[in-house]
Design goal:
Elements lengths: L2 H22 L3 H13 L11 H18 L3 H6 L1 H26 L4 H11 L4 H8 L6 H31 L4 H32 L3 H20 L4 H19 L2 H35 L3 H35 L12 H9 L5 H8 L8 H29 L8 H18 L7 H16 L7 H26 L5 H18 L2 H8 L1
Helix pairs in contact: 1-2, 1-12, 2-12, 2-16, 3-10, 3-11, 3-12, 3-15, 5-6, 5-8, 5-13, 6-8, 6-16, 7-8, 8-9, 8-11, 9-10, 9-11, 10-11, 12-15, 12-16, 13-14, 13-16, 15-16, 17-18, 19-20
Amino acid sequence: MSFFESLVALVFAAILLLQVSRRLAIPYPTMLAAAGVGLAMIPGAPKIALDPHMALALFIAPALVDAAFDFPIGAVWRLWRPLFALAVVAVAVSAGAVAWLGVAYAGLPFYAALALGAIVAPPDAAAATAVMGSISMPRRSVAVLKGESLLNDASALLLFSAATQVQSHGGIDGPIALRLGLAAPGGILFGIALAWVLKKIQPIVRGTLGSNLLEFVTTFGVWIIAERIGLSPVLCLVAFAMTTARSAGLTNPPRMRIHSFAVWESVVFLLNVLAFLLMGLQVRTIVGGMTSARLHEAGWFALAVILCLIVVRLAWVLVYNRLARHFKALRGDAEPASLRQGVLIGWCGMRGLVTLATAFALPADFPQRDLIVLTAFAVVLATLVVQGLTLGPVVRLLGLDGDDGLEKELAEARADLAASALASLDGKQGPAVEHWRFGFEAARAAVVPPEDVAPLERKRAIGLSAMRKQRKRLEQLRLEQRVGADAFLVLQEELDFHEVALSSEDERHIEES
């Protein structure tokens, strides 16, 4: 089976598994991990070589931009204390613990062991988001997890870059120390500057298909340029995406924004599929080249690393949780998180795309590369299966599966938006004004508390029923050749946008799946 045939087969299997995961409330990365293992067992699977630099840019850059675009800068400032504790301290402690295991039990050189620690330390944004999308969790816990999974990539990849550079250089000297010291602040400043440049270019392509293509070109371009000049590509890309997102809602046309979201979701999902496919193929090659004794040792070492990561994260999160409860300086003005929330955050340690891509990026001649890659895949598989599958029961066991406050926040915001629109019509008269005034007043009246959603559901049901009638009539007009192909597509898109506006949050989630 060729690589392309394997890719098509796994994408098809991933589509089927996605439906299974949605119906069983299982995170889709867990299903992809299982599919990767299954592929590794298929006889005749092709051998694929992947350039290390391409692996990081190809897999990590789009996932980071997709996550960073949806995480506002204000949330980073508001939650910087727990984010620092998780994205920096937890990563450093986890990487250090794994490095000690690598040196003491696997005989790895120190910097090679540190590279392994950096690879497996950060929980992944895509894995965490997929898991959180299938269960109800406290809003603040979700925000902290999303921010952590976004920012810990930067600290882990800085550590990974330092370890690999020092390992290949044979030691650390002044130039390397200076380069590593400038990587983080330089990457942030450079990302903000590039976002300002893009803001000047975007009006040229706004409203065209080139706008979507430019998003991917700039994503990969920012990563490549930052890497070439020795800056942190992760921090550069996160700063770039967050800065760009601040004005995107006011400047991008709605139609292109909807298209862009759909394209990015599909691309990130496809990259997850591709990463698990390639890792499955690599694991097959690695396992085939190991003796039974060596494979046995590698299995026990991987198990030790998995247990170490789970225990270290839980321990550190609970320590920070207790300290923050007693010392306000560690939590700021926010209410202290409960012990149950601390346990939940500590258990959310699923690894995924970032760990896989970073393992790919190891040079071919890196010390004990096969052991490191095999361990990384084992960590991803174990955390996605064990923690991913048990996260829902853990949430329910801790009693944290109640109302997350989202519906109330949406209701209040919708009422505020309707009131703002009505205020803009004050003092104006005429049929057009009355049409919009009636629409906004109806929208404000339809906003009800979450415990009394019946009126809103009736409104949606009536609207969707009318939409279906319109769609049948439109199809009839086309069959009667009273509406041409171009007009049909325009009218169909208008109905699509109206129906999306009427759909509930649950219905939109099902459609995205």
